[in-house]
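task queued by scheduler; priority normal; single chain, no ligands, no partner chains; default sampling; output format set to structure tokens
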Amino acid sequence: MIQVSDLTKDYGPRRAIDKLSFSVNKGDVVGFLGPNGAGKSTTMKIITGFMAPSHGTASVAGFDVFENPIEVKKRIGYLPETPPVYADMYVREYLRYVAALKQVPKDKIEKYVDHAIEKTNLGEVQKRLIHHLSKGFKQRVGIAQAIVSDPEVLILDEPTVGLDPKQVAEIRDLIKALKGQHTIILSTHILPEVEATCEKVIIINKGRIVAEDSIHSLATMEKGHQRLHVRLRKDVSDLKSVLAGVSAVTSVTLGASQKEWSIDLAGGEDVVESISSLIVTQGFGLLELTPAKRDLEDVFLKLTYGQESKGGAV
């Protein structure tokens, strides 16, 4: 459905995105994940035809974004980071206007507007001025304008930024409800948002893709590596020194107190046995030793912090 190949964007001497290549299949819900400034919004703007790349190509449903921009825009619903709403228009009036701009047949505009209002739960505010709506409702209006033409592809750029927890939960539920009806790219730097709504993740850092896989596969990507949570009866000032002789231990991190530690290691049951034996032998009082699966946050932090890369991103 979406094909991106060697996509590059330069702002003068600064490279925002660098030779990005990825594909999104029909019906996929993909999280485009990265820290602020990684190049997410730049990529979204290029895919939607709002910005030209310096090099590379992007296509939607087989149509090149810049050779066939009208065909591409017919198939895309786009919510930029700031919702493109007209504050002095009524909600329903605005959605009719957007439907007409997107060339929805005149005899179907009311049907499509009704559908968008129903999907986004805007019925109670459809006759109100957008200016008088809360930020959460304005965000819903932004999503409604993205889906009012019933596009094949939805691209949502930071759809929950600036919302309170209740509004965030409502927008996430809305995105879940759109699954199966649209191919969705959700651009964000908020990890729980991706885990709650997406099936596949593309992680971008400093303009380059550093990982691309399903959430489950990424969370278990380091096969043979595991994390142990350890709780002791006695305080230990430096457990890392105690375990220095176990070569498979890759890191030791202090928890809530000197009785609680996290141990990252490369190895199997024999290494775990060596660690537990050493702690018991030292007389620290081993109360708990439990394995913990690495989650998406662990992978994200490892891939996006401390990396070296040429240039920057916006």
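post-processing summary
- The two ends are 26 Å apart (CA to CA).
- The CA atoms of residues 31 and 201 lie 5 Å apart.
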